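Why does residue order matter? Because the sequence determines the fold. Keep that principle in mind as you read this record.
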Amino acid sequence: MLLTNREQEMIRLMMSQPAGVSRDELERQLGVSRRTIYRELSQLESDIATIGLKLDKGTGSTYRLVGDTNDLATLTATLAKQDQVVTFDPSQRQSALTLRLLNANGPETMTALAAAVDVSVTTIKQDLDILEPALNEYHLQLNRQKAAGIWIDGAEGDIRRVLVGVLNAEINPYVFFRFLRDPQQTFDPVTHYFVERLPQEELLAANAALLRIKALADLSDNQRKAVLLTVAVNTRRLREDQHVEAQRHFDQERLFQDQQLALEFLGRWTPRFARKSALAIISFLPLSSVPFAVAWLENQLIRLI
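Structure:
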């Protein structure tokens, strides 16, 4: 029996709450619609029936696993075995490849990429064919040369945008804030893969700073998530000595407003991060869509380093 990542998460929730998990709780914890929950429950019911288990719907739309001890032990063993395997769907696999290539210190080989996501070289070639035009839309160039390998070229600002975008797309708000509350929590294998690729140290520091900034107190969860990912990714890239280019043309009034917000953010960070980090919160903030303050802020921080 091969369980999907979502089925595994549902089973873990039910096992952790023997009295049953409500439909609303499943929606909230998995971050999906009610229709999706019904579809997943139907599929889960069919899958666990193969090992003699049933899905019992109790009062108040709660769900729990029912079966004898041996069958439940079989299910537990199945989960433990699948915990060791990361099974991506094509979109997730392409996101994983994008992160790997953007964070690589040099060119990668087809064989190494195939091994990293557990597919054939032929599948990797197909994935790269799909990724190439998508990366071009963000002004990034996917290079493939037999002798040299595979790598991505582009401006640092564009690389950061794609890194933030991929992480934002692959990690839903529930998982994201669950991680912030307890970084030691466990997730299904695919979710764990992407959580592990967060700039975690910078993210936790940024979250602590954000909580103390009144100007950002009214952000929605999605906005707050985007801000934190932006700050963390930009910070990590600067700490790795990757810098954005200065912008020649910009709105002076907007720059002044963004400088004040960026400096307040800077003031809320620990001295360790304030001296060695880029608080580039401008590029993806709902408050601003202009990246010029990133270069300005980095120039201020470089003077401190």
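Confidence is low (pLDDT under 50) at residues 274-305.
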